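The following record pairs a protein chain with its ligand, (2S)-2-hydroxybutanedioic acid.
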Amino acid sequence: MFQQLEAAPPDAILGLNEAFARDTTEGKINLTTGVYKDSTGTTPVLECVKEAERRLVETETSKGYLGIDGMKEFGDAARGLLFGTDHEINTSGRAATIQAPGGTGALRVAAEFLATGFPGAKIWCSRPTWANHPNIFRAAGLEVAEYGYYDESTRGLDAEALFDSLSQIPAGDVVCLHACCHNPTGVDPSAEQWQQVGDLIAERGLLPLVDFAYQGFGNGLDDDAAGLRALARPGSRLLVASSFSKNFGLYRERVGALSVVTGSPETAAVVLSRLKRTIRCNYSNPPAHGAGIVTTILGDEQLRAGWVTELSEMRTRINDMRQALAHGLAEAAPGQDFSVITRQRGMFSFSGLTPEQVDRLKDEFGVYMVRNGRINVAGITNDNVARLCESIAAVV
Ligand code: LMR
């Protein structure tokens, strides 16, 4: 029966790790998946996480199921990070939050909620966007379209194309936005541009689905939430898929949240009931450990302060590596302009390398990055940056 099936292609991002593992090139470099690595090239467990785990092991009394929507304290803490605890969205009770297995899980629940609640609504993604966005949305039955975002010639935001696109999207359609550290470009709107995006969304009656996977990796926790908060206006409706994979380093624990901001607590209860139905026939209820860690850290003043410090250390290291990459490339390939690398934010740099150049880097130098030219800056270290720059210089 199965012989007739065609093989699926490897995943555009995670599939590269498998090829990297098989590669025997000495000094090979993996800059594919968006995972933080420290100066030794290791993805560390944060100190605050270790301490929270110790406490959880000591105090945990049961491994019984969580509720379908997960832990309430976790949901409250997650929404607090998004909007600020005193925000009207949090005090009014007009938002429903569910605990999800990672940001991807949150996006999938969101997509199924949208597909069943608003049949016929399209979802619009930035051009380019995270390679998995269209996969997730289509798998849930949504039709995917694109809005203008990135300007190849300036390698910055194409604000005109963005605003033009938004002003032509039909009312009731969904717009997927990256809250900060846009994946893959590292290019975000300015504070004023976010206000304009918010104005257009309100005027046109569009529904934002904000993907917030990198809070704390741009400028800081509150700064990075400024775009989202520009959309969170009185009476606004929106969805936010947030992830704790990166900012707590909890990748394999699968911990994220979906918050749906409605017009009233009564509507939030209806939305929650629909989210729970979606979850129940998918993964039934979420895993507890990662969410327990996040809730423990955010609920303890000392652990929380430690986390903020560790997060800022990760951010600083990434920014240092950005500088090192730009500097190294300027020396290794003097004819080329790589200065834009220092203006991009978050984990990624959109290098401008073509798919053919990326293939050569892989085949000839054992340097792996996503085929669209996206480099995970967090995978660069003082030990590999020189080899990386020489390899890039050889192919441009
Ligand atoms: C990435 O873009 O590399 C990360 O978000 C990891 C993933 O799941 O693709």
